[in-house]
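Give me the fold.
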Amino acid sequence: MRIATFNVQNLRLRHGPGGPHLDGARDADDPGDDTPAAAGLDPADRRLTAAVLAQADADIVVLQEVFDRATLDFFHESYLIPAGLAPYPVRLSLGGNDGHGRNLAVLARRAFDDVVSHAAMTAADFGLPPLPGRDPAQPLFRRDLLMLDLPGLTLLAVHFKAPWPDRAAAWTVRRHEALALRRVIEARFAAPETAPWLILGDLNEPHSEPSRDRAAAPVLPPFTIDLLDRLAPEDRWTYAVPEGGLHARPDVMLASPALAAAFPDACPAILRAGLGRETGAAPPALPGTGWHRPHASDHAALVVDLPGL
């Protein structure tokens, strides 16, 4: 089985005079993103997004920043199938708590035994204190935690709070999300270290925080095995920080100790060919990739093979 995770940067279906179309891989708060010229690059962005997923050709794909099921279906039919991918009959987008629609979504070529959303759960549901200044009745996860059960494997898909606009407050939210994720795993498995599970998605950890200070520390090693650590240190980055050209690794595949031991050769590939050329990703870039835009996303995709599952 091949598994991928990819933050596709604001994938949303719009309806206008020219018919349905997808937003491109752009953020509304970036200079120039709301111009007609920027909008004109949107289809090229999404062809590149599809091309990256064609490179991955994964059996299961966890996506971040997908608006809704209609968006996912339109992207599947209008971009992924024309890119030559075999269909994904299972398509999930359950919604979440992000007011801008940056939700989790899943594409799969096999059915899941069970799918559990945690979007409605509060801090108290996880035995955690309420977040400072937040209504205790508000959901804890900034988006969601999806638990996807397959025979012999449980996937835990996440997209934690971004480190802005208030970095310190965002750290506290991410720490609560990490603690809740760990408690979900510990509740699901009597001995988590012996069970086969994989955390994947975008933890939104800043590049500058030492591991001991990271909000996600409760689910980082030694609780898990970071599969990206099987790559050379200089080859672990998945995101280029716009200011200063720094490289970061917010995207993760964190395996249980048992899963990592069962697949000692499972080393993720980081697919950077759809990143903007300003990131310094090693060539070859996908045809049509520009300096910043067009691009597939501001994140690289991760893909890993788990043979026999």
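The chain has one domain: 2-305.
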